[in-house]
Amino acid sequence: MTPPGAPPFDAACHPPPVGRQTDVARRGAGKGKGLPMVWIVVAIVVLLAAGALLYAARERRSRQLREGFGPEYQRTMAERGDRREAESELRRREKRREQFEIRELEPEVREHYADQWRGAQRRFVDQPVAAVGEADSLVTQVMRERGYPVADDFERRAADVSVDHPDVVQHYRVARDISVRTTRGETGTEDLRQAMVHFRALFAELLGDDVREGAEMHHHV
User: Fold this and answer.
1) What are the pLDDT digits (tens) for 81-100?
2) pTM for this structure?
3) How far apart are the C-alpha atoms of 126 and 180, rounded to whole Å?
4) Which of 4, 38, 58, 143 is close enough to 148 for a disulfide, judged by CB 3.0 to 4.6 Å?
């Protein structure tokens, strides 16, 4: 006779089949393994999304540099031979430029420099070498007047001015090269005329004026 409250004889003596026990254990183990797998998938998705955002930010920054620096971006790319290095250089220029207090010229100061330029232009007919040297000096003077540092070497000056005037800074480089070669006696009158034209491109932008009579350069030289 079975005591009161005791399980039935069959239940006590005959536990569930082994296969059934195994199925239950497997289901429990499966639930435990599924949870970490979900978190792994979530982590992968988050990493991919972060990578996509980082890539988009870099591309946006590259586009801004290309649009902002124009031909200077391509020149720096060709010079450095690597996109990352070139863009790092351009960002350094922008960072340095933020330290300058660039100012517009007062009308009377602008007219003063414009008169000096026209004088150099007139002197080119009889004294082309001296006129080119004067043009080089005038560009440096106007840069200083606007707030650009000019005590550094030429390449630094060109890099500094390229942030605000990327479309004409190459004119400055070409003109400067001709000016330097002139001191070694390696240039002719046509080279000197080209130097004046190139110097004028940056001079006019720095002056913030059309440098009246500058358009007559080709008639004067």
Assistant:
1) 999 999 999 999 999 999 99
2) 0.70
3) 20
4) 143
Task: Output 219 or 221, whichever has higher pLDDT.
Answer: 221
**Strand intervals (E) in the chain:** none
What is the end-to-end Cα distance of the chain in Å, rounded? 132
Q: Which residue has the higher pLDDT, 96 or 22?
A: 96
Domain ranges of the chain: 19-97, 107-220
Query: Are 182 and 191 spatial neighbours (Cβ–Cβ below 8 Å)?
Result: yes
Q: Which helix (H) or strand (E) is 64 found in, with range?
A: helix 18-69
Angle between helices 189-207 and 107-123 (to 10 degrees): 170
58 in Cβ contact with 91 (< 8 Å): no
Please tell me what DSSP assigns to residue 81: S
**Helix 128-146 with 169-183: angle, nearest 10 deg:** 140
Q: Per residue in 137-175, is it b (16+ CB within 10 Å) or e — as a string?
A: ebbeebbebbebebeeebeebbbbbbbebbebbbbbbbb
The answer to whether the beta carbons of residues 178 and 131 sit under 8 Å apart is no
pLDDT of amino acid 53? 65
